[in-house]
Prior knowledge:
The chain is about 10% helix and about 25% strand. The N and C termini lie far apart (about 95 Å). The radius of gyration is 36 Å and the shape is flat. Strands 3, 4, 8, 10, 11, 12, 14 and 16 form an eight-stranded mixed beta sheet that branches. The protein has a four-stranded antiparallel beta sheet with strand order 7-15-9-13, with no helix packed on it. The site of one 2-acetamido-2-deoxy-beta-D-glucopyranose (NAG) has 4 residues, from loops.
Amino acid sequence: MLPWxxxxxxxxxxxxxxxxQYELCKSLVSTDDGSVWEHYACQPKTASMKxxxxxxxxxxxxxxxxxxxxxxTLENPYMCSDECDASNPDLAHPPQLxxxxxxxxxxxxxxxxxxxxxxxxxxxxxxxxxxxxxxLSDDIQITFEYGxxxxxxxxxxxxxxRTWQPYQYxxxxxxxxxxxxxxxxxxxxxxxxxRVICTEQYSRWVGSKSEKNVKFExxxxxxxxxxxxxxxxxSLYTRMESMKGLRDFFTFTNLRLRLLRPALGxxxxxxxxxxxxxxxxSNIEVPxxxxxxxxxxxxxxxxxxxxxxxxxxxxxxxxxxxxxxFKAKSWKAGSYLPVxxxxxxxxxxxxxxxxxxxxxxxxxxxxxxxxYLNIVTCVSCKHNTRGQNCQHCRLGYFRNxxxxxxxxxxxxxxxxxxLGSVHDRCNSTGFCQCKEGATGPKxxxxxxxxxxxxxxxxxxxxxxxxxxxxxxxxxxxxxxVCPPEFKGVLCQQSRCEDGQDCNAAPPLQTPAVPxxxxxxxxxxxxxxxxxxxxx
Length: 535
Ligand SMILES: *[C@@H]1O[C@H](CO)[C@@H](O)[C@H](O)[C@H]1NC(C)=O
Ligand SMILES: *[C@@H]1O[C@H](CO)[C@@H](O)[C@H](O)[C@H]1NC(C)=O
Ligand SMILES: *[C@@H]1O[C@H](CO)[C@@H](O)[C@H](O)[C@H]1NC(C)=O
Ligand SMILES: *[C@@H]1O[C@H](CO)[C@@H](O)[C@H](O)[C@H]1NC(C)=O
Ligand SMILES: *[C@@H]1O[C@H](CO)[C@@H](O)[C@H](O)[C@H]1NC(C)=O
Ligand SMILES: *[C@@H]1O[C@H](CO)[C@@H](O)[C@H](O)[C@H]1NC(C)=O
Ligand SMILES: [Ca+2]
């Protein structure tokens, strides 16, 4: 192949990835009525997100050089003359060297302490945070100096680090390390492209200089839909819209590398020279774009955080809401379809023609004209709202006074206790209407003098008025525990009065059946009393 064809191919490749589609949010077009704005789905350009990532390494003290330490390399295990010293800028290897630009041409890298505490595992976490939802647009690439780890995991978070999911596992032996079969991304079919796999491709020893990179393959996954040279991006964008979970798979706010076992040089751990085992990373490349829900073509750093420059009258860090006063319809992400310009799904001004002058506070997309009433009303109000303008809360919900009417969570469930309250509705401050004896905002407490047993029932006995007699004791306000020779709700009745032979029948020898009948009777009495007093 002639050199220029290679150049042309490379260019084509570059063009396909970077150019063209969805770059403009709007353009001025001329019509018979003069110039008007046309709006399109749009997304920001891909950027190297390593510049604004906040990087943190764990555990504390994992970075080498404090105290200064000597180390060797796997290729040169008996020349242990290299030194890491945190107090000397020339010999220090702090975490920020994973994201610097290396403009001087000098290789700079973060390095850990050596594995001197073997067999205790040498573990390190690298957490990367952006405080912004991003979408991967090309391979994540981590460059290791002195060999790639033999066991490692990549995790991601989509909620700013609150919860984490595995993204990909890496090991020289996947079954052994993670109990997973080894896979290649090329083994994946369109149906299982979002599967979390373990790969052995980046963990086997090949010499520390010949292959330094560990990748999370994004390009190869795109290629499943867009073709090997990503020549058919339309097909990828169409899938992004139609395939559940596909876009989310490439979305993240945080990444975490868990380094679980360092490079071993293709052999077992040699205990006599542990100074050659450590991790060193010179670069982490994260090519991605801001997730702006196809409502922005720019994403700028503001007050240290990336922020979509929202169009289409949307707002929020990810353009995930309609602006105030533009909530005639509920918010929708822009769509890649129909290609090539997509649909902007703009937020409509309240009272604009598209809303037919019917404000639904963002709880409904549809209005309908009711002929015989001559009104326009919102249809199928969501978020537990109801009413002509979705301005009321459904029964069983109450309005959160501190939330705006167009807030998705403006209606809060009453949550009345079914047993303690009269019905499931509540007043405007969330108080339920309680049955007798019950109290509390949700009617799940009892007033003093009542006890809870699937509802509130008046106490059978207490310390003041309803005293258990003849030495009986009051059990949780519910019943008197009587001495053997007495019975009755308040132990007021002697067993002898029934003409029994009191002396001859101590309670322990009382046959079981009369006792059972007795307790059943007692139970009925209780119930009777309860129903009598609760009306
Ligand atoms: C790395 O993060 C994981 C998950 O939070 C945690 O379980 C583990 O202890 C961390 N390891 C280190 C060395 O901090
Ligand atoms: C994260 O971004 C939000 C705005 O999107 C900002 O309010 C918040 O202060 C940021 N947090 C940090 C730690 O920078
Ligand atoms: C994905 O699906 C293909 C074909 O359906 C199958 O051969 C492959 O093993 C699957 N990969 C995984 C990781 O499940
Ligand atoms: C957003 O609202 C402004 C002000 O009403 C309007 O000029 C602009 O055209 C709107 N943009 C879109 C995309 O609807
Ligand atoms: C009411 O709305 C405010 C503001 O959105 C929120 O902070 C609060 O938690 C909500 N209260 C309830 C009970 O949901
Ligand atoms: C709701 O009910 C509670 C308890 O009965 C009462 O204190 C409160 O004032 C009521 N709120 C309104 C707005 O009526
Ligand atoms: Ca570097």
